[in-house]
Amino acid sequence: MSGPATIRIALVDDHALFVRGLELLLPTTSNGRIQVAGTTSDAATAAALVRGCLPDLALVDLHMPAPGGVRAIMAIRRTSPGLRILAMSGIDDTDTAVAALRAGAEGYLPKSSEPEDLLPPLLAALEGWSVLPMDLLAAVVAPARTGRPVAAILDDQERALLRLIAQGSGTLQIADTLHISERSVKRLTAALLRKLRVSSRAEAAALAGSAGLL
Fold first, then answer.
1. CB distance 85 to 105 below 8 Å
2. Is pTM, for the whole model, over 0.70?
3. How many CA atoms lie within 13 A of 20 on its CB side?
4. In angstroms, rounded to a whole number, what is the distance separating the alpha carbons of residues 51 and 65?
5. 70, 44 in Cβ contact below 8 A?
6. Which of 201, 203, 204, 210 could serve as a FRET partner for 170 with CA atoms 20 to 30 Å apart?
7. Of the CATH numbers 3.30.160.250, 3.40.50.2300, 2.102.10.10, 3.30.300.20, which one belongs to the domain with range 7-131?
8. In the structure, how many helices (H) and strands (E) does the chain have?
9. Structural domain 140-210, CATH architecture
10. Which stretches of the chain score pLDDT less than 50?
């Protein structure tokens, strides 16, 4: 009987010692389950790295030399739309973290995390969940709290769609569940994000959790 599948990680980070540490420690602390498939210290080559090593998930440092981590996330999202992306930073910078979520990251991890503590959030991200520290979650949902409650502005279909997004369901799974076409899912999702005044599924998921819709 085979064990759990290996998780291939791409690292986009210009801190050589941090990268080397993860290369050594992630396989050890995960009993070989996590392997670093490729690394780059240049944000401009992040998308090319991902295309070349075909990882399951990319970890991107936000505070890198130009073009920077947020633009690296945008480039990866354009060229590898199905890849899960987590932003990381050693600096407490909520604005940049929120920008990373809006650029397409599914979550955020502080670099202060111990290697052995990284496996649960990495697995959660791969399963479709958004991974956010509580202070960042509060920053994401705060703008919506000034308006009407989320549940009050959504109809039944929109609430069902939001729950599925928050659960990490993909477009095809949502289409099957709601008995609509994949094209309709994409159209309805875009309309839902506009209605919630957010720019990513991660932010929508955070709102769903804050509103008690899960």
1. yes
2. no
3. 3
4. 21
5. no
6. 210
7. 3.40.50.2300
8. 11, 5
9. Orthogonal Bundle (1.10)
10. 1, 144-147
